[in-house]
Specification:
heterotrimer; A: 244 residues; mainly alpha; Four Helix Bundle (Hemerythrin (Met), subunit A); disordered N terminus; B: rod-shaped; disordered C terminus
């Protein structure tokens, strides 16, 4: 995907191919999601300890993983933009950050909904949860930078820089929170680590969910990039009209 | 630990509902917005030089100079 | 060392400017005191001392002061075209970054050194030690590095007052955690193995990482 986006595009064939890819991905995501729903609610065994609530796990985990993928893409595309200065790199960076923020928001919401019945609290400063929250802040700031920059060009460069710094920061945040929490254990009612000792069938359904969510992620990403491109074209046309 | 786990169905329902509502709104918003921008684009292109790009649809690569 | 000479010249310029006007140091000192007073009303609901939460208060106050000082360090450059002058100076962008960063570091260390005894009295802190000084130094280097970098972006935007903290605080979370935990251990006066095996190395790694990355990509901030 990055390779395609990175090309300065020969005109029509690529564009048509990408548009087709988007529609196919949408279709694929829809089908996979329906099957996934069937697997999660009908096929998956009810967890012996946690009960039905454990089924949240099948969407919470893929969504969290893909939000990380979004921010990884954003950092890579940001570096690509700083080096190559292709508009498409920036489009990819922008789209993956925005889709990443949507995913990370959903990861937080489903995490909170999971924590209440399973751990007995709405929120706990668990390392993964806390790191996810910090990620949310960093990439919301990333999107704000684009908004507040005086020129679009500055917004692109600044946000690329923020994306890189944010991504470097994430592992340090994770380890510091982990150490910090080992000193201040949080009261947790009920079983803490539900993802240990996953039954094979559960693991397979989780992987299927990951693939389905990946298709959806890809679709949203391409759709966001197409929107950005159309907006850019309109802005360019307006500038040309004004300069006449 | 009780023998029969609590079902907690409202939580389960809430989680899936939030996820799907957000995805639908986000995807729907994007395609609605792209269509409206696209339309504006075509309206702007119409009066000036007619039919610079024969391929209709996905938005030009860059504006004709 | 061309780089160091340029950086020191810029830092020295900021210090001299500050010695003349004293506006950053004065306002930051008063701000730091009022933060402690306000926290006292907010937290001291049960009778007794604030000692258990003192390390947290100390670092929250220091972080707020850092944002204030670094924002000021760059807004001052905006007045009378100082920023353009800085960028046109015959030094590399790394030197500009290091210079501004050193200037902010000096201000913050001075403010922190003045405030520490005052905090110690007001918050009833048990001991002061050289190890605490080391923690403060390393954490402040982290603050100044990340803060200077983001301040350079934030001052060029419309909403500079809000953008700096929004960028600064999430990235600085590991430094706050390490500094609070290390200070708590030092102030308790008990065994300090955690300070040396965990928190100080964490601070060193954070500082080293951002001292490499920030100057490296600093030049991009001033394009366009």
């Amino acid at each position: 995907m990055a390779a395609i986006a990175g090309q300065p595009t020969r005109k029509t064939p690529w564009r048509a191919a990408i548009r087709d890819a988007r529609l196919w991905l949408l279709l694929l995501a829809a089908v996979l999601t329906l099957v996934d729903g069937y697997l999660i609610f009908v096929v998956a065994p009810t967890d012996a300890v946690l009960g039905h609530i454990q089924r949240i796990f099948y969407i919470h985990v893929p969504i969290s993983i893909l939000s990380f993928l979004g921010f990884l893409l954003c950092a890579i595309a940001g570096i690509g933009y700083l080096i190559r200065r292709g508009e498409s790199w920036d489009r990819l960076a922008h789209a993956s950050a925005e889709v990443g923020v949507v995913f990370v928001t959903l990861a937080l919401i489903t995490g909170v909904i999971w924590a209440r019945p399973v751990w007995g609290v709405w929120w706990t400063w668990e390392p993964r949860l806390t790191t996810t929250l910090i990620l949310w802040f960093i990439y919301v700031a990333y999107l704000m930078i684009r908004q507040y920059a005086p020129t679009p060009q500055q917004g692109r460069v600044w946000s690329a820089v923020v994306g890189i710094i944010g991504f470097v920061d994430v592992p340090i945040v994770y380890y510091s929170v982990q150490w910090w929490r080992s000193i201040h254990p949080v009261q947790v009612i009920g079983p803490e680590a539900a993802d240990d000792a996953l039954e094979p069938i559960m693991a397979r359904i989780l992987i299927f969910s990951l693939v389905a969510t990946l298709a959806l992620f890809g679709y949203l990403l391409l759709e966001r990039m197409a929107l950005r491109k159309t907006e850019d074209t309109l802005a360019q046309l307006r500038r040309d009209a004004n300069s006449d | 630990m009780t023998a029969i786990p609590p079902d907690n169905l409202p939580f389960l329902f809430a989680a899936f509902a939030v996820v799907w509502v957000v995805f639908f709104i986000y995807a729907g918003y994007m395609s609605w917005r792209r269509r409206s921008v696209q339309q504006e684009l075509e309206e702007l292109r119409e009066p000036g030089t007619p039919a610079n790009e024969s391929t209709a649809g996905d938005g030009g690569e860059d504006a004709p100079a | 060392m061309e780089l160091l000479r340029g950086a020191l010249a810029i830092a020295w310029k900021d210090v001299r400017l500050e010695l003349r006007s004293r506006d950053v140091i004065t306002s930051a000192l008063v701000f730091g005191l009022i933060v402690v007073v306000v926290f006292n009303f907010g937290l001291n609901r049960a009778p007794g001392s604030l000692a258990p939460v003192a390390p947290g208060l100390l670092w929250v106050a220091y972080a707020f002061i850092g944002v204030l000082a670094m924002n000021r360090a760059f807004t001052r450059e905006l007045e009378q075209g100082g920023l353009d002058g800085l960028l046109l100076a015959p030094v590399s962008r790394d030197a500009v970054f290091l210079g501004k960063m050193l200037g902010s570091l000096i201000f913050m260390l001075v403010i922190e050194a003045i405030l520490l005894p005052v905090f110690a009295v007001m918050l009833d802190l048990p001991t002061l030690s050289p190890t605490l000084g080391l923690v403060i130094l390393l954490a402040t280097v982290g603050f100044a590095t990340v803060g200077t970098f983001f301040a350079a972006i934030a001052v060029q935007t419309r909403s500079r007052e809000i953008l700096l903290p929004v960028l600064f605080f999430p990235v600085i979370v590991p430094v706050i955690i390490a500094a609070v935990e290390a200070s708590a251990l030092v102030l308790q006066g008990g065994p300090m193995t955690g300070v040396w095996t965990r928190w100080l190395p964490l601070l060193v790694v954070f500082d080293a990482l951002f001292l490499v990355i920030c100057p490296w990509i600093f030049g991009f901030i001033f394009e366009g």
